[in-house]
Amino acid sequence: MLSNRLLLSFHAVSVGLVAASAALTVDENDFTPINELRDLVHRVGSVGLRLPGSDVHNELVDWVNTSLHDIPGLEVQGSKYDLDVWEPKEGMNLSEAGTLCIQSDGKCHNIPIVGAIPFTLPTNDSALTGPLIYVPFNQSISSVDVRGKVILRDLLPLKVPYPYLLKDSHYITPDLAAQINGTYERPYLSTPADDLIAAGRGGAAGLISAFDIPRKTLEGYYDPHFGQHYLIPGVYLGSEQYYMLRDACRYGHAASLKISADTGRKYTRELFATLPGRSKETIIIGSHTDGATWVQENGVAGLLTLAKYFAAQPIASPARAKTLKFAFTSGHLTYSRDGSIPYAKKLDQEYDSGNLALVIILEHLGARELLPSAASNGQYGRVLNFTGNSEATLWSVGPTRLVIDAVTTAVKNRMLDGMGVTPGNPPKNTSQIPFYASQGGIGTTYHNYLLPTTSIVSGPWSLWAPSFGEAAIDFARLRDQLLAVADVVVGLASDSKDEIAGGVYRIPPDA
Ligand SMILES: *[C@@H]1O[C@H](CO)[C@@H](O)[C@H](O)[C@H]1NC(C)=O
Ligand SMILES: *[C@@H]1O[C@H](CO)[C@@H](O)[C@H](O)[C@H]1NC(C)=O
Ligand SMILES: *[C@@H]1O[C@H](CO)[C@@H](O)[C@H](O)[C@H]1NC(C)=O
Ligand SMILES: *[C@@H]1O[C@H](CO)[C@@H](O)[C@H](O)[C@H]1NC(C)=O
Ligand SMILES: *[C@@H]1O[C@H](CO)[C@@H](O)[C@H](O)[C@H]1NC(C)=O
Ligand SMILES: *[C@@H]1O[C@H](CO)[C@@H](O)[C@H](O)[C@H]1NC(C)=O
Ligand SMILES: *[C@@H]1O[C@H](CO)[C@@H](O)[C@H](O)[C@H]1NC(C)=O
Predict the structure, then answer these.
(1) DSSP E strands: which ranges in 222-363?
(2) Which atom of ligand 3 is the closest one to the Cα of 139?
(3) Is 293 in the pocket of ligand 5 (CB under 6 A)?
(4) Cβ atoms of 141 and 199 closer than 8 Å
(5) Which of 147, 155, 303, 342 qualifies as a FRET site for 371, CA 20 to 30 Å off?
């Protein structure tokens, strides 16, 4: 008891002293160097698609587990749950799992494609065939008789004004603020999910969803990721094959679609690593281990880096004031069964009597901006190029003053770019709780269970397109983002759970 009280008073004094100085900022010399960080991200990204519960994913979880065991002081726990999966047939990648051919002159002519659309109907070694029909973007599929037909449909990314993302922001870095009158166009905002549902309801034989971007650029594109299993086969098309397909529609040719995939039930594993601090009050730092590219999900490498940094700090230091729990969830690529959902629910049930102070979620770190522009030589469609800028990244913070301040300070001190410190999005709606429904990624789940949550997430063109590989990421930027996260943890060292909640996370609210 006495030693406890001593420890507590020591804590109060030491924190009081340090808080006044600049020592609260993490020393970047103590932090994993860029080349080691690149190696970690390489281990995650270079193995290709990591579908939850797949062999590749299991091997990654094993590697994370081993890496965590190599960090002294961490207590690692595992858990697993089952979910309905959709996987390309053994030995095939997503691109090979779909085929398209057009019937003419008694033959079926193979057309190169971007790949299978995930979760579309496996055709079991045969093909589904039907006359081609083009349904323009401004016409709803449900208003057309598509029975037995293969639909060609443009996939045009939704464009939103930047304020849709950044309205009411607490702070926007100057480079991103300069774009505020522009529009934000990213393919994750408009998947073919609605088209697949409407086409399935209408009894179509299949769907071809056409990007206006070259096939190679998007090869193996993985989305939608709701985990909804569609009733028809579907493939993505690249820009080079677009006119050929439009002509085939005009001439009334038939198309055959083949999807080589397996569905079934699988277990997926999750890992939770606890680093005890001086207090039982806990900050959870989370991301997911399943993923599709180097961007999605490099938060895994981020968590390992942070775990290593904090575990190496002296227990008496501000860095170790609170207990840290690193949560490696799964199921994001099947996200109606995302592991963050039951986890957030459990945290919510325990919140009032528990020790949870804050949830920090990290996704899609360090991304470089890619934007489309018109293809040259009068070719159809657009090409993607890196702009040299940082990808617009949201650092959402729930309505908790101390965290908003800590995040804003960290973003400024680390001179991050492309960053908006926002209350969430879309714009405020006071008819619902929370007022800002989304934090962009899995942070949304914790935020909607009214847990104090802050999350970093971006949605670049490279998010679901594996072809960019390592080039999708600026590792120096990724490291600076992680340093800023560490700054936030240290910056909140002297603030209790209740102070962090600030009365907001109680019903009825104090203020
Ligand atoms: C993690 O690795 C340890 C040591 O090899 C092993 O005992 C444990 O079962 C593993 N945990 C999980 C969840 O894979
Ligand atoms: C392929 O087999 C599965 C499982 O039996 C079935 O649900 C599905 O409808 C089949 N696909 C086609 C195109 O017949
Ligand atoms: C769709 O757009 C085309 C070209 O802009 C136009 O000719 C057509 O009338 C539109 N159709 C509908 C249903 O709005
Ligand atoms: C955005 O547009 C408004 C209104 O035209 C203008 O006042 C403002 O300077 C513009 N901001 C930027 C960053 O271009
Ligand atoms: C899929 O496999 C094919 C054949 O091995 C290869 O050419 C292609 O690059 C792979 N695509 C992806 C996205 O991995
Ligand atoms: C943009 O990307 C296209 C397609 O990859 C490439 O041909 C072109 O050279 C790039 N343009 C610039 C300015 O880098
Ligand atoms: C605001 O939230 C209410 C309740 O969820 C919903 O009915 C309404 O459509 C929302 N308004 C907007 C503009 O999204």
Answers:
(1) 234-237, 254-259, 261-275, 282-288, 323-329, 356-362
(2) 13
(3) no
(4) yes
(5) 303
d(CA 451, CA 351): 8
Q: How far is CA 140 from the centre of its chain?
A: 29
CA of 342 to the centre of ligand 5 (A): 35
Distance 292 CA to ligand 1 centre (A): 24
Tell me which of 20-24, 123-127, 304-308, 315-319 is least confident.
Answer: 20-24
Residue 433's nearest CA partner among 450, 413, 410 is 450
Question: Which of 140-149, 162-171, 496-505 shows the lowest mean pLDDT across its residues?
Answer: 496-505
Triad 72, 76, 79: Cα angle to 5°: 165
Tokens at 508, concatenated: 């009825």
Predicted TM-score (pTM) of this structure: 0.93
> What ligand 6 atom has the least distance to the C-alpha of 384?
2
Cα atoms in the Cβ-side hemisphere of radius 13 Å centred on 19: 14
H or E stretch covering 445:
helix 443-448
Q: pLDDT (tens digit, 9 = 90+) per residue, 194-233?
A: 999 999 999 999 999 999 999 999 999 999 999 999 999 9
Cα(93) to ligand 5 centroid in Å equals: 6
- What pLDDT was estimated at residue 427? 84
Residues with Cβ within 8 Å of residue 412, at least 6 apart in sequence: 171
For 413-450, how does the pLDDT look when each residue is reduced to its tens digit (9 = 90+)?
A: 999 999 999 999 888 999 999 999 999 999 999 999 99
Probe ligand 1: pick from 62, 75, 76, 289, max atoms within 8 Å of CB? Answer: 76
In the block, residue with structure tokens 């528990």: 354
- The C-alpha atoms of residue 485 and residue 407 are separated, in whole angstroms, by 8
pLDDT given for residue 24 in this prediction? 57
